Structures are given as structure tokens and as C-alpha cells.
Amino acid sequence: MSAAPARFARRASAGGLHARVLGAGPTGALAALALVDAGWSVELCDPLSAEQLCQRRRAYAFNQSSRELLERLDLWSAIEPLLVRFDELQLWDLGAEQQMVFALTDLLPRLGACTNAIGWIGRHDQLQRLLLARLQQAPGVRLQLGAKPLSPPQRLPGPPLDLEIAADGPDSPARQRLGIGCWRRPYRQSCLTAEVSLRGSRDDQAWELLRPEGPFAVLPLGEQRFQLVWSAPTDRCRQLEALPDSAFLDRLAGVLPDRFQPDGLLEPARAFPVELLLARRLHRRGTLLVGESAHRCHPVGGQGLNLCWRDVAVLHRLARRAARGELDPRQLGAAYGRRRWPDLLLTLLATDLLVRIFSNRSPALLPLRRLALGLLGRFRGLRRLALTVMSSGPCELLGPPPE
To answer: What CATH architecture does domain 3-184+276-398 belong to?
Structure first.
């Protein structure tokens, strides 16, 4: 072993690796827990208080890649009871009038042997509270929540910093401070989220309705409650957000297929813009971009949080190697970038193509859409391929990543 790796091995064995995480949302909080699990000590900083971090009203779709990470971090047994599983995903192209179903049998045998679900739906507030509670209990974590942000953020007294993780959102101050540019393209659509009581679907079914004005997801929350993710032109989303509850439900009934019957609005509708974003670099000067500070994609297929958490999975593996003295922490950023670029590029490309192909009224594309769904419905191998990409990311086709 050379002198430099030997020095880092001695520091790791003495518990000498330290990181600061900027942003304590689901991705930043999980990144902090991953670093602690890898043997690092961590500062977690966010200008919002713990209570403010938990106030966001939305739900997330969790896929197999997120489940595997949570299992490695010994969090899955605590989080799973908070989630609603679905074992059937209905894909319905309303423009082409074609429908198909992904079932449990379409999971790869490796994944199907581990779970009884295609995916899970969970609420932000429950997830965030659990992650923050684990951080408060974890040794080696110092929380700096609700403090006025400084540029650069204030360092707590302690050992020198080996790594900084920027998980501070799509308008990341850390990314801007580092001078890292990004490719950014707003979609012509926005997304509207709402929680409704709904008849016409089971609690173990999820739906992705491909409509000419944009995708529409219907996600089960249990007890006939569903989270809607409604993509539509921005002006239309703003109009829908401003409607009284009864008028909103009337509009909703008019756009859903006849089998769905909305009975009540349980949480107010909220609109937010959607965009394609990719940072030009994933690291600079000892800082790594993780989650939405590095990338954003259209919410079609529920890829957003899962893509962010695959960043955390790579960070976890590399941090463990550094803690064992096998990787110089100064090289961690370059190793992280090499491992994340393929997944990011392929996932952003796939979601963008889905929106472009299916969110339009072009008659020329209808035969292609009917052919694609027809082939998926007929051939199990194609369904497994597509579901693997949705469940574990496109790089899963290349085999499990090295530890």
C-alpha cells in the first residue's frame, strides 16, 4: 500500500472522515444516514426547521432500487409499514385507446423473489419525520436545522471536512457558489397534485394514464384514497388549482376514464412547474451534487425520488470504500461522477421521450404507440425489460453494481 492510501486507511480506522450535507429533505437526510452507515461523521444543515421540512403535502412512488438501498441502510423494516404497496401497474394510452398491465410476474426473478410488490406509495411527512428521527438518534450526526444560511455555510467546530454533499434542490445555492452550470429546459406542462377519494380502482393498483395533454398518474394511498399527479398545460393547471372543490371534482370527472368516480377532494390541489435539468458537472472542489441539485426529470413513471436515491446508493458504496481506506476521499467525486452519468443520461432521455411521444395529438405517432403497447402486452420478455428499467434504473440491465 502506498503512503497516501495508508494514511487514509489510518484516518478511516480512527473514525476520521467527516462530511457536511447541505439540505435535509428526503435525499439529503438519507445521504447523511448513508454516510453514517459507512462510518463517517456528518453535519446536516438546512435553513428550514425540522417541522418546516415535514410540512410538504405530497406523496412519492418508491421502486425496487429505493427498497434495496433502504434495506442496506437497515431502514426498510421501519419505512415499509408507512407505505401502500401496489402489485399491478395499469398503463393506458387514452389517445391510442390501448391498455396493458404490468404484474408481479413481470418482475425479474431476482427482484420478484425479494418482494410482493411492483412499487410502493408513501407520504412525504411520514417519511421525513422518520428520517429525521433516525438522524437525531444516530451517533456521529450534528444537526444544524433552521439556521440562517451563510455563503459558504457555517462550519460547526470540529475536525476538518473531507466531503461536502449538496442536496439543496434544483436552485441549489451550492451549485451556483461552485460555478457549475446546468442544462435546463422547462416543459410546456406543469403538474397538479391532489389527494382524492376515488371509486373504480383497487388499493393495490396504480395507473399511468397517457393523455394527449400530458401523463396522469393515479397512485393508491389506501382506504380508497389516491394521489393524483396531473400533467397539463401550465395555464390550465393554474386554473384548476384556483377552482372550488366541487368545480375541481367536476373537471376531474370529465378527464378521467368513465371507470373512475371521484367522490371528494381530501387535500387541496397544488400546481408546480416541471422541467428537465442536468448539471454540467456532478462534483467540484470536494463537493458532490446529489438529487435535484444535479438533475430533475418529468414525473412520468415516478422516477424523480428514485433517481435521487440511486445517487445516494452510489455515494454509500463509495463512502464505505473510503472508510475502509480503499479510496482517497479526494477521488470520491470523480468516482461518483463516472458511476452516475450513465443512469442519469438514460433516465432523463427515457422520461423525455415518453412525454414527447405520448403527450401529443399527432396522428402520425398513433401507429407507433399502438405497436409499442401491443408488443409489450404480447411479449413477457419486453414487459420484464421495461419494468426493470422503471423499477431499478436502466443500468440494472448491466448487472448489479460493484461494492
So the answer is: 3-Layer(bba) Sandwich (3.50)
